[in-house]
Specification:
This protein has 197 residues and is an alpha+beta fold. 43% of the residues lie in helices and 19% in strands. The strands form two sheets. Strands 1-5-4-3-2 form a five-stranded antiparallel β-sheet. A two-stranded antiparallel sheet has the order 6-7. The longest helix has 15 residues.
């Protein structure tokens, strides 16, 4: 099944130093909500109106993409999105000086801080208030399905994160009931309107 998914379009690949990056640690860390795990070290999600299928093989990250504003240079995209240009080893060395962080730093040496789209990150943060990760993912997926752009892929239908304008013009009742935002609807729309203005 994994081989069938990987045979669907051209593969873009970039490499990194061993131990520098762990796809599972990074995408399952709770800092992002749009990545769906397909198998061990294999995910699909949407970034910048582009559906991406990622998998890690040792110190290589492989990428397939579909849809709109695809990153032109996947090495640059991966380096930026996964913050591979920052010296995390230096950060981890400093964290290891603190005994509370020492064990955690050793266990999560491949975790990277994602450089996500600012608007998506802000709206996701608002949605995350008093929620657990599966519910946050579900709400964000409904918001994207109702207000984002559709991206057809061999892996299924994907949706971009909505623009500020799309959320600014949404009906509060639809945000609350169809998307499941509840009381967060007015906060999401207020932020979207401020950014869209």
């Amino acid at each position: 099944m994994a081989e069938e998914r990987r045979a669907l379009s051209a593969i873009h690949e970039f490499t990194f130093s061993s131990g520098e990056f762990d796809l599972e640690q990074t995408l399952d860390s709770g800092q992002c909500f749009r990545w769906q795990r397909l198998a061990a070290n294999e995910y699909w999600g949407v970034v910048s109106n582009c559906a991406l299928h990622l998998w890690q093989e040792e110190h290589r990250l492989r990428v397939r993409h579909w849809g709109g504003a695809a990153p032109v240079n996947f090495a640059d995209f991966g380096c930026h999105y996964f913050d591979l240009s920052s010296d995390y080893q230096h950060i981890l060395q400093r964290l290891r000086r603190d005994k509370l962080f020492a064990q955690l730093a050793s266990q999560r040496a491949g975790l990277r801080i994602l450089r996500q789209e600012p608007f998506e990150t802000l709206i996701s943060f608002i949605i995350s208030a008093n929620n657990h990760i599966p519910r946050i993912r579900s709400i964000i997926e409904r918001v994207c399905k109702h207000y984002g752009l559709s991206i057809n892929t061999p892996l299924g239908e994907a949706y971009s994160f909505p623009s500020p304008e799309a959320l600014a013009s949404a009906r509060l009742e639809d945000l609350r009931l169809k998307c499941g935002l509840g009381y967060r609807d007015a906060y999401v729309q207020s932020v979207a309107r401020a950014i869209a203005a």
